[in-house]
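**Backbone shape codes:**
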Amino acid sequence: MSSNAAVVEHHVAPGDPPHIHHMDSATAYGAAKLGMWLFLATEILLFSVMFCSFAVMRYYHLAEFADASEHLNWKLGCLNTAVLLISSWTAAVAVTKAQQGDNRAVARNFGFSIFCGFVFLVIKTIEYTSKAQHGMFPVAPWNHEFYAYKNFLGIYYCMTGLHALHVIIGMVVMWWVVSKARHNRFSARYYTPVELGALYWHLVDLIWIYLFPLLYLVG
């Protein structure tokens, strides 16, 4: 057999970083973390556009935004804020546990963060359903009372809907990490996926911390 046909397999033991032939583990960790920060920067830019759009729309429709905001259920928004803050804390704990090689704790804490994400989506669905029943749609609400709020409703659904999509993505990422933790994949030598997953979830939490007062309290 020629050398070109030879295949070398690298078996990674539980807790060891994956083998990357062109860089060592420390370099790979730095590259992965830098890549995640760059990705998060693009996500921040995406939502920055939304925040700027909100500011411009509010400037031109100040009375509409102030009145429409009063029709949002700030109690549900506050509850969702608390849920995400708790989930962000357990995600941070998961990183610490991964660094200690406690894979069961990683799965448990990320699992709780996933549960919190599910609770957040359920509460948001309840809120959306309530608005739909009263005719609060972003385009031509059937209830004439809310027709004057179409600008606010349009940007409200756009911003909160996009954020909900990021919640779902974050839940999928954390579930993947949990599946790895159940196979004792992480240790003090390798915990990159846990840290990067937690970073993404912190961004999801941070965005909502800005959305909640902007939409529910300031209007």
Remarks:
- The longest helix spans residues 25-60.
